[in-house]
Each structure stands twice: as structure tokens, then as C-alpha cells.
Amino acid sequence: MGCSPTYLEDAKEAPKDMSPSDAPRDGAPPDVLFPLGVQCGQPLCSVGQVCCYSPQIAYCATSCPDGGIITAVLACDGPEDCSGNPCCVVLKSSTTAACTQGSGECEHQFRGRQGGGQSRVCHVDGDCTAGIPNTSAVRCCTMKWLKMRICVTKAEADSGGSEFDCS
């Protein structure tokens, strides 16, 4: 099953319903440790805002401009922003992160920074297997170039020295 984000206009706008889910997920701490909103450099974007990100600048807005230096539009940074459903990051010419409709969505199809693909955004390993316990993406690691934690396979984690930090 592919990633079915609930964003508008290719994630140019934030999802409208990002209510909290405070129940622990597969051993994950309660979402109170991960506040609602998207971490965007130093600021935390409010519910209803997205993070417009590039290596040079990151800022919060209700939508991001097309083109220019913006390389990522992030409407979520974990399941706490998505009513407990996965936050799915899609990597292609521009990167988007948006909420999915159900717990079993956003299966791992990552082909590296240059190859693109998709994976779940996570805070802990339990975010990777919630709703799809047989997934091969079981490790929650920081994607170095985007400073975002995503689910990766054990092989990607073990060989991802330049792309991932799994400590």
C-alpha cells in the first residue's frame, strides 16, 4: 500500500485536522514528549502550519511558495501530528511529509537520497512498526541531510554512515 497523504496541492498546505493521540504506540512514550506541530529548525510550527525548509533557511507558514530554494514542505514530524496515524515522507525532487489516512499506510520504499522513495517519519522504533508489524523498516534513524528521523531497514541503518545516524 502506498503513502496516501492528506495534504492539499502536493503538501503546499498543512492538514486541517491534526488532533493529538496521547496513547503510547508499541512501547513509545506518550506523545506529550513530542509536541504537536512540526520542528522547523529552532521554531516549532503551530498546528495548521508547515515547515518550509532548505539547507539555507527554515520557516513556518500556512503554505510554501512553489520553486525557489525550498526543498522540503513538512506538514508533520511524527504520528503525534496525525491523530496517531503515520506521518509519511516522500522523497523526490522536492520532499514532502504529510499525514496518512490509516495506521497501515506508508510502507517503506526508500532508495536512498538520490533514488527517492517514501518512509515513515518517526521518533522511536515503535513508530516504524505501528500498524504494519511485518515491515522490514524497523529502525528509527536521523536522515542527516534533512535532520529528520525516518524508518529504515536494519541493512540501511548498518550501512548508512553518510545518510543516517541511528544512535
Structural topology:
Layout (H helix, E strand, L loop, with lengths): L37 E2 L4 E2 L4 E4 L4 E4 L10 E3 L12 E5 L3 E5 L9 E2 L1 H4 L1 E5 L4 H4 L7 E7 L4 E6 H6 L4 E2 L2
Parallel strand pairs: 5-7
Antiparallel strand pairs: 1-2, 3-4, 3-5, 6-7, 6-9, 8-9, 10-11, 10-12
Please give a structural write-up:
This protein is mainly beta and 167 residues long. It has one domain. It has 3 helices and 12 strands; from the N terminus they run ββββββββαβαββαβ. The protein has helices at 112-115, 126-129, 154-159; strands spanning 38-39, 44-45, 50-53, 58-61, 72-74, 87-91, 95-99, 109-110, 117-121, 137-143, 148-153, 164-165. A 7-stranded mixed sheet has the order 4-3-5-7-6-9-8. β1 and β2 (44-45) form a beta hairpin. The longest helix is centred in the last third of the chain and has 6 residues, at 154-159. The chain is globular. The N and C termini lie far apart (29 Å).
Please describe the structure with a list of short key phrases separated by commas or semicolons.
167 residues; mainly beta; seven-stranded mixed sheet; three-stranded antiparallel sheet; 12 strands; disordered N terminus
